[in-house]
Amino acid sequence: MGKSGLLLHVCCAPCAAGCVERLIAEDREVTLYFSNSNIATEEEFARRLVSVEALARIFRLPLEVDPYDHAAWLERVAGLEAEPEKGARCPVCFGFSLERAARRAAELGVGFATTLTVSPHKSSRVIFEAGARWEHFEPYDFKKRDGFRRSRELARQYEFYMQNFCGCEFSLR
Ligand code: SF4
Predict the structure, then answer these.
(1) Does residue 19 have its Cβ closer than 6 Å to ligand 1?
(2) Nearest CA to ligand 1 atom 6
(3) Is 59 left (phi over 0), alpha (psi -120 to 50) or beta?
(4) What enzyme category does the UniProt record give (predicted)?
(5) What percent of the chain has pLDDT over 70?
(6) Ligand 1 contact via 98 beta carbon (within 6 Å)
(7) CATH class of 4-171
(8) Which residues, at least 6 apart from 93, have a Cβ–Cβ distance to it below 8 Å?
(9) How close is the Cα of 2 to the center of ligand 1, in Å?
(10) Alpha-carbon distance 32 to 114, whole Å?
(11) Cβ(37) – ligand 1 distance below 6 Å
């Protein structure tokens, strides 16, 4: 049987490294999809992208970049600005990026998953609920099997940029 394709929504390189390693071990044919219009500034978006480009080179994977459109993201989360991190804004934020990944995966005729589940700061259940809107969403729980620790280990090894906030301006407070 040939490898099965997967579009992997990537939030950042330190989270993606362990996910990519696992998917390659499972013989998935991975395309990276950097879609992160939630990030507060274009400078920060570019900073995270540099490490994702390095990740793509290291693992020899194709990378697609969804153009930065923070205005559209702000419109989607309007009214939820005052919510705390892990509050009601975050599932909407997940849905925003997953919707874009879902569209691209459908064009490519493959399933899609997200590196967001590797973080212990994010509930995999909430992410799966956001992804359940699409039949071709694959609920990979990357924090399983010590995924986060392994991902950080690889990120240190490859000297990826490690941000200290989630992404949006409201997570900076
Ligand atoms: S805190 Fe993180 S997950 Fe929540 S809305 Fe902001 S960027 Fe999105």
Answers:
(1) no
(2) 168
(3) alpha
(4) oxidoreductase
(5) 99
(6) no
(7) alpha beta
(8) 38, 73, 76, 77, 168
(9) 37
(10) 10
(11) no
